[in-house]
Automatic annotation (TrEMBL), chains A, B:
The keyword Lipid biosynthesis does not apply. Keywords: DNA-binding. Pfam families: TetR_N. PANTHER family: HTH-TYPE TRANSCRIPTIONAL REGULATOR PKSA, HTH-TYPE TRANSCRIPTIONAL REGULATOR RUTR. Residues 32-51 bind DNA. It comes from the Bacteria. Residues 9-69 form the HTH tetR-type domain. It comes from Lapidilactobacillus mulanensis. Gene3D superfamilies: Tetracycline Repressor, domain 2. This is TetR/AcrR family transcriptional regulator.
DNA sequence: GTCTATAATTAGATAGAC
DNA sequence: GTCTATCTAATTATAGAC
């Protein structure tokens, strides 16, 4: 009868947490199992008790749990649209939620690992990553589509508008995390995206 | 009198080319010097004749040459603006140039390495990366600024518009290279960016 | 400039006591 | 479930012949 004892789960998480930080900051290959053991104050053999397949199994677990965590955190709670200003506000809230997700250290780490070790991912793992982005995209499309008539926009243009908005979101985060290597998301950037979104929404959407 | 003999340069480039491909596809740490030697059909010791400081020196050279190459390739040749349609066309040409740069395998490899091994970069190397993006941004600002009056746009809004346009460019490339892990840039994506740019430019800019 | 051979170190992983 | 001790293989790097 396999039951996750509290003690075992604790140690397993200690290993995962240490590995997540090390993989994110130094990279998967550059991190040694010895370093993980040192950081968890545990002996050489113990790691293989919890992860019989070694380092790669730890990576896989981090990738999986990271996607799970980020997916579960997405919960936009859109309500039906009234005005252009209302649309803008709801899109801002959505961006804020994404921003909050990446501001959490565990999510930040697992995202960085997923991108950085992208070449190591199995097809299945890569699909998780792509599906998460697709899901966000679809949620935004479903949110905007009912309002098409009011907004002087062709139904066909909605995906296009959504892609533009997503580009703003993505670029701001990628720039900050991948190019500037900042672990802490800067509020200034969030404001920049807000004003970009304002310009886009008020220019493209026209209340009728 | 140190003079780069043709033979020496050849071998040095063979090493750099092999390492560039391996670092980009497997990662820096995961690539062994043995593998580089095998791929260049040369013996164990030779690598250290050309790169006395070993693997890290090879990485630094690739990073440096990559930034140089991508920087030199940026040459937008904007001419002064007449109409909104003209602006759109010139921006499209700029995007096309960026697209072409990333379509070249060497540039693609060095870019992937630079992003993937971002955490290993020195401050100086990181600054090169940031400055390249800033330079592109500034070129676009300088291109659009003279046309401000004609376009019903505040001078202050130009950087904002440029950032939006750059987000479209960046996202399309990052998505393709980092998320989807495609080595070949897909023309479909280029068309998507074109139509996004069209929507943005025609919505935000108004001829007077 | 290029080679062979090898030193020195460190990596991931395992065996087996407690 | 956690520990110590250690194996095996691979890694970077060097010495020195040609």
């Amino acid at each position: 009868m396999k039951k996750d004892g509290a003690k075992g789960e604790l140690q397993k998480n200690k290993i995962l947490n240490a590995a997540r930080e090390l993989f994110a900051t130094k990279g998967f290959e550059a991190t040694t199992t010895r370093e993980i053991n040192r950081q968890t104050d545990s002996a050489e053999g113990l790691l293989y008790y919890y992860f019989p397949h070694g380092k790669r199994e730890i990576l896989d677990t981090i990738i999986y749990e990271g996607i799970q965590s980020r997916t579960n955190a997405i919960d936009f709670k859109f309500h039906s649209v009234s005005s252009v200003a209302d649309i803008e506000q709801q899109l801002l809230n959505a961006f804020d939620q994404i921003w909050q997700i990446f501001s959490q250290q565990e999510n930040y780490y697992s995202f960085m690992i997923t991108i950085r070790e992208r070449a190591l991912l199995s097809n299945k793992q890569a699909k998780w990553l792509q599906d998460l982005i697709k899901e966000v995209r679809q949620l935004l499309i479903d949110f905007l589509t009912p309002a098409t008539e009011k907004l002087g926009l062709q139904q066909d243009n909605i995906p296009q508008l959504v892609d533009i908005i997503l580009s703003l979101f993505q670029s701001s985060i990628y720039d900050e995390l991948l190019i500037n290597n900042n672990q802490e998301l800067n509020n200034q950037i969030s404001h920049t995206v807000q004003s970009q979104l304002h310009l886009i929404v008020t220019s493209i959407l026209v209340e009728k």
